[in-house]
Amino acid sequence: MIRDVGGSYRRAIVETVHHYSGVRPHAASIDALKAEGCWNNDWEASLELLRRGGLGHLPSFEALVEVFNSFYFGGDPEGDPSAWQGFIGSEPLLVEREFFEQLSAAGVAWGFVSGAEPPSARFVLEQRLGLSHPPLIAMGDAPDKPDPTGFLHLASELCGPLDTSTTPVAYLGDTVADVLTVQRARQEQPQQRFLSLAVAPPHLHSPDERERRGLYEAQLLEAGADAVIPTTLAVLAALEPVLG
Questions:
Q1: Residues 31, 216: Cα–Cα separation, whole Å
Q2: Alpha helices, DSSP H, located in the chain
Q3: Are 112 and 135 in contact (CB under 8 A)?
Q4: Are the CB atoms for 14 and 24 separated by under 8 Å?
Q5: Alpha-carbon span 133 to 90, nearest angstrom
């Protein structure tokens, strides 16, 4: 997790649902939906919230995507990012470029498996973080998580063939779908060592959200996370036993 999407992607879910139903879902409702492990795609999550809210006539998926992107990008997703006026402009970064330099210095090969649209992912990684051609699997490059196809492809790209590799592969995510992705990767590549690290999303880190954060972290562990870490920056410490 490298950016706080509470005021962007999650806000776009809220405003998209409100656009069609007049009701803004609470953050707890979105957390509960995400905890089911099969709503990693925020377009589909928005549509499901409308369905569960009892909207009589659901919009077409294509129409909903257009509305969602109008909130999130506020401009042509394939156009000039400097012209975007949407919520994407209010995403605090949770790491800096130096974090990835530290990973590389420790001998950790890294890359990204993201449910975000490619323009959004590239904008954050390349323009905001200044990473040069980072290994990336984004929306449309592989089936949505928790399908492990994209994760396994990236792991092979970074580590070599997984049927012969002795290099442990760790994945850090903040949703149940991320954890389940690792579980399913283990099923497909049982000879490979995988490590599932998890972290609660930023909107649960305020002191008044301590109880909800505890419940969320318990759901991550119940889904199969090997460890829940406090922040993304703690990942190197969590990998120390693996790195030796």
A1: 8
A2: 9-21, 27-34, 42-52, 61-72, 97-105, 118-122, 149-159, 176-188, 210-223, 235-243
A3: yes
A4: yes
A5: 24
Characterise 62 by phi-psi region: left (phi > 0), alpha (psi -120 to 50), beta (else).
alpha
CA atoms within 13 A on the CB side of 34: 26
Dump pLDDT digits (tens) for 117-137: 999 999 999 999 999 999 999
DSSP label at 144? P
Give me the residue label for tokens 């497909």.
Answer: 188
- Which residues 6+ apart lie within 8 Å of 199 measured at CB? 1, 172, 173, 174, 228, 229, 230, 231, 232
Q: How confident is the model over 43-90, as pLDDT tens digits?
A: 999 999 999 999 989 999 999 999 999 999 999 999 999 999 999 998
Structure-token match 């649960």, residue found: 204
